[in-house]
Amino acid sequence: MSEPVSPPPLSVLPLSVLELATVGMGQSSADALAHTVAVAQAADRLGYRRIWVAEHHNMPAVASTNPPVLIAHLAAVTERITVGSGGVMLPNHAPLVVAEQFALLEALHPGRIDLGIGRAPGTDQSTALALRRDPTLLSAEQFPQDLLDLLGLFGDERVDGGLAERFTATPAAVTAPSVVLLGSSGYSAQLAGQLGLPFTFAHHFGSPNTVAAVELYRESFRPSPTLSQPYTIVTANTLVADTAEEARRLALPGQLMRLAIRTNRLRPVPNPEEAQRDPERAAAEAMPSNAVIGDPQQAVAALRQLAADTGADELMVTASTHGVAERLRSLELLAAAWGRPAGERPAA
User: Fold this and answer.
1) Could you tell me if 270 and 278 are in contact, meaning their C-beta atoms sit under 8 angstroms apart?
2) 58 Cα distance to chain centroid
3) What is the reported pTM?
């Protein structure tokens, strides 16, 4: 066990946003993506450090199927905030394709692009096979080599051999996107540490192993050309409203969405009124959860405790709701209570 790591002071601990582009009942994919644009612009204005979009396929409640396409648009309609993937599910894609996409994004928006990488397919095996088309490329054993190929294509001189011997992600790169390894297990934590990459732990999945994983990451860390010391981002389901009662009401649709995912009965996110009448409401509310749901003071206290428990260098909040208004209000209330003036750009 390593010694506890003290997080940065609350006043300087960065906050970021993970957006799923959720599709609510009665909404179209276009509506969901327009809502994501509104969230990105609000996060930019309020001083959040970064916004990431996820990769999910064949899911009625999630419109974010292609992170590079969405990232290109969000970076073009924001000014300061870093935009990235949370994440690109590498088993679904050829490393050269991912490298070309993100090298192009970095050339368009230098210094503002993150490439968060995950090793899960983010979908069922049938969909993953339809994406990659070769079942031998979907195994866990292939992931480390694909990741090394990706780093090599971005110019990591530690990578010997592989695709970088014959290919380049872009003809004349000046900068490269920041590569971050995502995970919800000790495997990804250890691999991120060994490669000297930043690590993001999916605490919002509800895993009880967050502290153990981030400690394993720090114990495994070896400095790299891009990172001299460990850097940990911890995600948290977070919904803030003016009152705790209102926050619980607005969070219920997201709880029903998580129940639908766990039971493989996928559907769009219900609105708050439908959620109150939903026959599965009791089951959704009874699920174990580490979500932060409450008024601004309660949310800040819970997030401060999460930072203290994990020694996180950064927290990333995410909320699955039917509408965009509640997500925007949550970000506004949290930013104000966190103590960062609207529009202030955190230090890198």
Assistant:
1) yes
2) 19
3) 0.91
